[in-house]
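Limitations

Structures in this collection are predictions, not experimental determinations, and the ligand pose is part of the prediction. Treat each record accordingly. The example that follows, with pyridoxal-5'-phosphate as the small molecule, is included so readers can see exactly what is and is not provided: the inputs are given verbatim, and the output is the predicted complex.
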Amino acid sequence: MTGPPQSRYPEEYARGAAKEHSKPMPIQATSKIWHNGSLIPWEQAKIHVMSHVIHYGSSVFEGIRCYAQPRGSAVFRLPEHMQRLLDSAKIYRMEIPFAIDELCAAVVDVIEANGVAPCYIRPIVFRGYGEIGVSPKGSPIEVYIANFPWGKYIAGHGGADVCISSWNRLAPNTMPSLAKAGANYMNSQLIHMEAEINGYQEGIGLDVNGMVSEGSGENVFVVRSGVLYTPLLGNSALSGITRDSAIAIARHLGYTVIEQPIPREMLYIADEVFFTGTAAEVSPIRSIDRILIADGKPGEITQKIADEFLGIANGLKSDRFGWLTPVKVNATEMASA
Ligand SMILES: Cc1ncc(COP(=O)(O)O)c(C=O)c1O
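Predicted complex:
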């Protein structure tokens, strides 16, 4: 027999469902990457296949956005992201040899060196090349920060069609969900692939007790009778920076926000449901398990929060919460356009 072997997953292709929603988004290389205190050429930011992280998933990382401003650009909630990176590293006993201010300055440096904005920023800390045993003691900590252009993450203007995943999120005291660790994203991949193969844009994971947790890469909010609800961090959800921003914005706009366990069926009968995340920003959800949310149109409260969020991020509304770190790069386009 000649030619490549038949796919073991023919259903995905037969239905063509996955292709409908997911556009390929190849990484767009920039010029420099920050590595352990220096800027190095993009092509030289390579690691050995025997590095600890490759075998045991020993990485923690961040996803941050830099937005266009009327003049220059600005990174959204940079210190909060870097604090979460330090927290993730602490949980895994990884000693990062840089202080928070140095990490924040490094982000500004790499964006200015590349002159690319708006952009997505990916700081990553991992255990590198040293020993092959599970014990990480003999493997050095490596810190990299890259930035590159990255547009809309959740496709569709009218809201996303999502499903509840058959995969649960991480059980407490197994993989810590407050750490943004690379290894957690094996679970996210299962949730996301299952959703895509079945023709949805995203999947929502329940926690081990069957309560709503989060999307594969987003926090979830529910609106019912003018009140916003979002799962507790104890429901195996990441402490999303955008989640925190949406809560602050909603309260500022005069809404009540309640963090509480959310049963799955509360999603189906909601007036509005939306995702929050650095990549997803504030993204309305149109249907869940093919049940339309209200009339299926993006809700009023979702829209208000999205407008305020993007207004602040793009410097068109007052930075009343002090969320922006300026960068001296003239933006070429709006990241969320
Ligand atoms: C699993 C998961 N939950 C929630 C979020 C949202 O977090 P943030 O708003 O900090 O990007 C992300 C994205 O980083 C994520 O990967």
